[in-house]
């Protein structure tokens, strides 16, 4: 009888050790997957910023109505509302519509874009949201048109079932400046 109890106790200890080891390995794998998803989201954010950065600073520049002086600020788009710019554009560059987002503020609160990250035969999709606002030279939010626009990109993983590996969106912020 004592040998049976000792054998049973030994099996319980081995089972507990095995389960704890498996649980630890599962947590490590989940952490690694989350880290990889954050890396991919960061890459998508950088790629999106590069697309936006290649656009003109303002529609006045696209229309060639600027003169290259400080007076150009009066020509810059500014709606004066809390949003400062038009919202909801469906930018063709991200495949959300046919609107030609040809200047930086056209991306402000655009329709959410889904961007792919291709991994061999698989693809991971990310939801991308962009906000643009004027900032002062001290990088404080401005309630008027300035020569600086802050572009903030938020990227989160996008799954059809609504699940996500990334708890908080990856955020990338840059300030783009009008060059005279």
Secondary structure: elements and pairs:
Blueprint: H1 2-53, H2 59-62, E1 113-119, E2 122-134, E3 148-157, E4 170-177
Antiparallel strand pairs: 1-2, 2-3, 3-4
Q: Please, could you describe this protein's structure?
A:
The protein has 180 residues and is of the alpha+beta class. It has one domain. The chain is built from two helices and four strands, in the order ααββββ. The chain has a four-stranded antiparallel sheet with strand order 1-2-3-4, covered by helices on one side. A hairpin with a 2-residue loop joins β1 and β2. The protein is elongated. The termini are far apart. The mean pLDDT is 93.
Rg over C-alpha atoms, rounded to the nearest angstrom: 25 Å
- Overall number of strands: 4
- The termini sit apart by 92 Å
Order of helices and strands: HHEEEE
Percent helix among the residues?
25-40%
Mean pLDDT: 93
Task: Give a brief outline of the structure.
By secondary structure, the protein is α+β, with helices and mostly antiparallel strands.
């Amino acid at each position: 009888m004592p040998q049976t109890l000792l054998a049973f106790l030994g099996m319980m200890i081995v089972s507990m050790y095995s389960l704890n080891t498996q649980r630890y390995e599962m947590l490590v794998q989940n952490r690694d997957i989350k880290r990889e998803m954050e890396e991919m989201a960061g890459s998508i954010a950088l790629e999106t910023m590069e697309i936006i950065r290649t656009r003109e600073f303002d529609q006045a520049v696209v229309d060639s109505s600027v003169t290259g002086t400080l007076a150009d600020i009066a020509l810059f788009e500014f709606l004066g509302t809390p949003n400062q710019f038009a919202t909801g554009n469906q930018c063709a560059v991200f495949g959300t519509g046919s609107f030609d987002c040809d200047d930086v503020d056209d991306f402000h609160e655009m329709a959410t874009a889904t961007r792919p990250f291709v991994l061999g035969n698989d693809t991971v999709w990310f939801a991308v949201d962009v906000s643009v606002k004027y900032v002062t030279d001290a990088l404080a939010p401005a309630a008027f048109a300035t020569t600086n626009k802050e572009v903030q990109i938020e990227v989160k993983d996008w799954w059809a079932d609504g699940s996500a590996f990334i708890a908080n969106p990856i955020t990338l912020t840059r300030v783009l400046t009008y060059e005279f």
